[in-house]
Write a sequence for this structure.
């Protein structure tokens, strides 16, 4: 049974205005470029099978699971919007930097599809970039969502013959006040659509990608997700809230993070809840795992339980999120992690 949380006053992290805006001109002096590092996804029908084959290689995925994921892509238009949305984030960040009179090129490289990191690093090499500031496009860190991306950059440097490129990485930003503001505004957009006369018992559910327990316990992934949720809920006093996980794969008998969003929906329906506001705080874009696992699968589960489910948009290129990226860049790589060499890969 998932524990129920209720927001209380006085829990919010970060209330310092300087920390919030992060205007130290570190990056202008130290870096000659910005590298956004994303997952990557297929944009054409003919790319779906090779993409899935690549990301699932070496994983214990049954043929049935592969076919199901393939069917999800078919249902959603035979493509993923991930790359397009990531490009919008990169373009918006470039515009933000330009607006603040900061002339830094913004590059976008993907770990699992075009533009692959090695392709992007070739472009950076042609531009004679020597030191870049890397931001992994994932809000919560784990071996899957962070460590592998840093390893991917190092592999791409080797493949491009570009070992001289120095990469410093952004510190953790899952509690950055501008990220919390962007999430909170997405929640307000949903609340404005709800008829509070009909939906009298409303609870919030924050979701993130599930991981095998053995992997999750190598980091503070669970705690960081809960901290993000708690910070957002400081703006919505009195509502009960939960953390749930989605999009698990692997063998059915393997232990993964839970509760699964669909199981939680059934539990809350039995408890008398008639409306759930779902916030996919672990994702930055409305890609296939959000569009199918929440907008299709979770909504079907909610319908069976006669419970209203309303999903908040991910932050995508929300102005507050783009400002957060700019703030993180200007603050520089504070904290213990200053480069891939400091991480045991």
């Amino acid at each position: 049974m998932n524990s129920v949380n209720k927001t209380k006053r006085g829990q919010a992290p970060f209330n310092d205005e300087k920390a919030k805006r992060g205007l130290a001109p570190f990056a202008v002096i130290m870096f000659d470029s910005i590298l956004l590092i994303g997952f990557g996804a297929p944009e054409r029908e003919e790319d779906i099978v090779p993409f899935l084959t690549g990301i699932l290689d070496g994983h214990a995925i049954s043929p049935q699971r592969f076919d199901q994921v393939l069917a999800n892509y078919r249902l959603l238009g035979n493509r993923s919007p991930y790359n397009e949305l990531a490009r919008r984030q990169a373009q918006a960040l470039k515009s933000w930097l330009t607006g603040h009179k900061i002339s830094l090129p913004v590059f976008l490289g993907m770990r699992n599809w075009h533009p692959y990191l090695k392709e992007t690093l070739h472009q950076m090499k042609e531009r004679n970039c020597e030191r870049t500031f890397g931001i992994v496009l994932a809000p919560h860190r784990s071996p899957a969502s962070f460590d592998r991306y840093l390893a991917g950059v190092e592999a791409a440097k080797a493949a491009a013959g570009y070992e001289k490129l120095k990469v410093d990485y952004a510190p953790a930003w899952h509690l950055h006040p501008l990220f919390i503001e962007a999430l909170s505004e997405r929640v307000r957009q949903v609340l404005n659509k709800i008829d509070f006369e009909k939906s009298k018992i409303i609870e919030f559910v924050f979701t993130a990608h599930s991981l095998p327990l053995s992997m999750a316990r190598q980091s503070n992934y669970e705690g960081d997700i809960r901290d993000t949720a708690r910070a957002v809920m400081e703006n919505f006093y009195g509502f009960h809230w939960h953390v749930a996980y989605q999009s698990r794969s692997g063998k059915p008998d393997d232990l993964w993070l839970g509760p699964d969003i669909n199981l939680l929906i059934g539990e809350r329906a039995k408890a008398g809840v008639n409306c759930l506001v779902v916030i996919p705080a672990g994702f930055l874009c409305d890609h296939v795992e959000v569009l199918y696992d929440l907008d299709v699968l979770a909504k079907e589960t909610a319908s069976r339980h006669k419970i209203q489910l309303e999903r908040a948009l991910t932050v995508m290129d929300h102005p507050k999120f783009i400002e957060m990226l700019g703030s993180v860049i200007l603050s520089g790589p504070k904290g213990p992690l200053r480069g891939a060499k400091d991480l045991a890969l």
